[in-house]
Design goal:
This protein has 518 residues and is an alpha/beta fold. The chain contains 17 helices and 18 strands. The strands form 5 sheets. It has an 8-stranded parallel barrel, surrounded by 7 helices. Strands 12-13-14 form a 3-stranded antiparallel beta sheet. Strands 15-16-17 form a 3-stranded antiparallel beta sheet. The two termini are 50 Å apart. The structure holds 3-methyl-2-oxobutanoic acid (KIV) and zinc ion (ZN). Residues 4-266 form the Pyruvate carboxyltransferase domain.
């Protein structure tokens, strides 16, 4: 197996995505998680670009161990000086210099001749080499440069001491076979190429960044530059999790492996998405919310018999906490029965038939049947109340200033008692949660909230996914509502109900249903 080094540029190229900028504290937290994830090199920013970025690179160099830190610089002395200073404390470091090489960049952006560009590349690599031994050089827009000049500039920087040659597909133009073949030609024809490492850096304008990176690996590169969630300029960069999982899943075919600890993939992806306010598409491979969810009855049936029937990766190994079965109008009896049994219940065949009919009626009216709705259906089928609490009413007073206030009415289904509770907070969700918590018999921590808009226009409805923690375990509740605050309140209630049930703080008023395990 060839070991492929993953060079993470989430905090530099990724951060160049519009609206994705991070403050130094956020960068430090993410850099530590990247190190734990097992990336080999981190490019934490562009030191000359701002005092904040300088400070972030400097602190990451001091505080993050076990990875090589890369100081990014244009091929100018001031940038190199800043990158040298910012990375001084790193355990291991390299400098990364770039300079445009394509005619279109030279003519319209740099306004320099090829001779001038070669001269700058030579002198700046030689200058950087005075301070740091490991020098990476990137001829920007390499894939639109043409062999002759590309070979010339790469040969020149190798002669001056560059140790890593990165060939960026800056505008995401290359096709996989072209990109692979370009590396093969460079490695064959450029003098000094056997002494250096080669690196791929792909943008995703045509959705080919991962495919191009794999083609480069096949051609012999030992480093690939990636970003978490594929964030980056325009359509982004090669996605770390997609590439890592392609290599992991097809390692025999590729003869390659990475140092990624897959169990951290999902949490890092979530953290980066939140910190950058950059949502992940539902159907994004590996980390999208639908990536391991199945609604079709035939698929659900197959999965319940053997996960491998419709899944090529195990979400548990990626640290993905979600359930694989989504109940909707395509779901069959097998999946519904399975979900009911996950709540510790077994229904007779007759009860199952009644439930199935009611389920299909509800599923026809909405996209997904949530767990608390299923529990309601099971309850009405067996004439029992299975949910510990029902949120009967909630009202929130919100505005632009002052504290937000919420009042809620919640029924304790075991005793029939109704309680009205109220809470305040700096934001409406905080006020709602403060109020609702008062009725709960156990300590529940509000851990996470995901909010999605499910439609457009004034009638748009929102979906809330709330995760709570109780007794060292996580519980998720999902709800959809035209009033997003109601969606949050119901999702919170659903998550708390699971926690209360599982922590044994509720005895069901159950008739005619056998509560397995209770
Ligand atoms: O896309 C690109 O060309 C880059 C280089 C500066 C490496 O990000
Ligand atoms: Zn780039």
């Amino acid at each position: 197996m060839r070991r492929i080094h993953l060079f993470d540029t989430t905090l530099r190229d990724g951060e160049q995505a519009p609206g994705a900028s991070l403050n130094p504290e956020q960068k430090i937290v993410i850099a530590k998680q990247l190190a734990q994830l097992g990336v080999d090199i981190i490019e934490p920013g562009f030191p000359i670009s701002s005092p904040g970025d300088f400070m972030a690179v400097q602190r990451i160099s001091r505080e993050v161990q076990g990875v090589e830190i890369c100081g990014f610089a244009r091929s100018v002395k001031e940038d190199i000086d800043a990158a040298v200073r910012a990375t001084e404390a790193a355990e291991r470091r390299r400098l990364h210099l770039f300079l445009s090489s394509s005619n279109i960049h030279l003519d319209f952006q740099l306004r320099k001749s090829r001779e001038q560009v070669i001269q700058i590349a030579r002198s700046m690599v030689a200058y950087a080499k005075r301070f740091v031994d490991r020098i990476e050089f990137s001829p920007m827009d390499a894939t639109r440069t043409g062999d002759e000049f590309l070979f010339e500039i790469i040969e020149a920087v190798i002669a001056e001491g560059a140790t890593i040659i990165n060939i960026p597909d800056t505008v995401g133009y290359a096709l996989p076979e072209e990109y692979g073949a370009l590396f093969t030609r460079v490695m064959k024809n450029v003098r000094g190429s056997s002494q250096v490492e080669f690196s791929a850096h792909c943008h995703n304008d045509l959705g080919l960044a991962v495919a191009n990176s794999l083609a480069a690996i096949r051609a012999g590169v030992t480093q690939v530059e990636v970003t978490v969630n594929g964030v980056g300029e325009r359509a982004g960069n090669c996605s770390l999790e997609e590439l890592a999982m392609a290599i992991e899943t097809r390692k025999e075919a590729l003869g390659a492996e990475t140092g990624i600890r897959t169990e951290h993939i999902y949490s890092v992806s979530q953290k980066v998405s939140r910190a950058m306010s950059f949502p992940i598409a539902f159907n994004k491979p590996v980390v999208g919310r639908n990536a391991f969810q199945h609604e079709a009855g035939i698929h659900q049936d197959g999965l319940l018999k053997n996960r491998n029937t419709y899944e090529i990766m195990d979400p548990d190994r990626l640290g993905i906490p979600r359930s694989m079965i989504i109940l909707g109008k395509h779901s069959g009896r097998h999946a519904i029965k399975h979900r009911v049994s996950q709540f510790g219940m077994e229904l007779t065949d007759d009860q199952m038939e009644v439930l199935y009919t009611r389920f299909k009626e509800l599923a026809d009216q909405q996209k997904i049947v949530q767990d608390h709705q299923l529990m309601g259906l099971v309850g009405s089928t067996v004439n029992a109340v299975l949910e510990p609490y029902t949120l009967v009413h909630a009202q929130v007073l919100t505005g632009t200033t002052g504290h937000r206030m919420a009042s809620c009415t919640i029924t304790n289904n075991a005793t029939g008692e109704q309680r009205i509770c109220s809470g305040t907070g700096e934001a409406p969700v905080e006020a709602l949660v403060a109020g609702m918590r008062q009725v709960l018999p156990i300590q529940v921590e509000f851990d996470d909230l995901e909010l999605y808009s499910l439609s457009s226009g004034e009638e748009a409805s929102g979906e809330a996914i709330v995760t709570v923690k109780a007794g060292g375990k996580s519980y998720r509740g999902v709800s959809e509502h035209r009033d997003v605050l109601m969606a949050v309140a119901q999702a919170f209630m659903a998550a708390c109900n699971q926690a209360v049930r599982e922590q044994g703080a509720f005895s069901e008023t159950t008739e005619g249903v056998s509560a397995a395990g209770h």
